[in-house]
Amino acid sequence: MKLHRLTAVCAAAAGIALVAPQGAQAQSQTPALPVGWLSASPGIVRAGTRPELKWSITHPASVIDYVTVTNNTVTPKEELDMEIRVLGAGVTSSNSNGTNFTFVPTEAAFSYDGGSYSRIFYGTNHDVVPSKIVKSGVVQKGKPLRFGGRYFWSNKWSAMYTSTSGTMNVRTLVNGQTPPTTYPLHTAPTLENFIKPYLDAGGRVKIGPMDVIVFMELTHTDAQKSNQGYDLQDMVLLVTFRTRN
């Protein structure tokens, strides 16, 4: 007589990761892989017996199901939790002969629902801790999130580029999109090490399904897009959203 344990076998066939049935205390975080639960009654059955199977699968969502993303602005479609991290600050200075590169203090700013831009980070790339949350909170449906940045060099501030500057110096992208430079950023000699983990072998953005990455170009204007220095990595932010239901 053969006995079979159905739950693990069926789950493997379905290609899902098993978790306990979701109840009132389940986390409201969209999974990166399909997850779910599967139960059989009875759990161990004799050959020829037909057990009753019940299951539920939660598939990964895409951030664009929850926010509207334009080149400059992110607008929630529903109430969401939000976290912002700084991935890198790539403004540098050097001697006239191109030696002695040093990182320049750079500021990142955030605006919510049309409000003024407020500082969320100031420092050089040496001060960046990618795991550190520099801004968090609950964002409401229809209230836009915007970003900006500038740097401090030679005792003065640069121009402040923001989502509302009327330029394309601030870009927001989602997983699978390609940074809009006129040359492949992932093969550029100016590519900073802090960007490499967030680009795949084809130069496409490689982030989580509920993430938005914000690239800023702070040292060149739109008219200088063909310049190799226009690399959209002078300030880079990662914005993560989570559902609240």
Walk me through the structure.
The chain has 245 residues and is mainly beta. The chain has one helix spanning 6-14; strands at 3-5, 17-18, 35-41, 44-46, 52-58, 67-69, 73-76, 80-88, 92-93, 102-103, 106-112, 118-123, 133-139, 145-153, 156-157, 161-162, 170-173, 211-216, 235-243. The protein has two domains: 3-58, no CATH class; 63-243, Jelly Rolls (Sandwich). The chain has one helix and 19 strands. Strands 6, 7, 11, 12, 14, 15 and 16 form a seven-stranded antiparallel β-sheet that branches. The protein has a five-stranded antiparallel β-sheet with strand order 13-8-19-18-17, with no helix packed on it. Strands 2-3-5 form a three-stranded mixed β-sheet, covered by helices on one side. The chain is elongated.
Q: State Rg.
A: 23 Å
SS-based class: mainly beta
CATH architecture of the largest domain: Sandwich
Number of helices: 1
Amino-to-carboxy terminus distance: 47 Å
What is the total tally of β strands?
19
Number of domains: 2
> What integer is the average pLDDT?
83
CATH topology of the largest domain: Jelly Rolls
Largest sheet: 7 strands, antiparallel
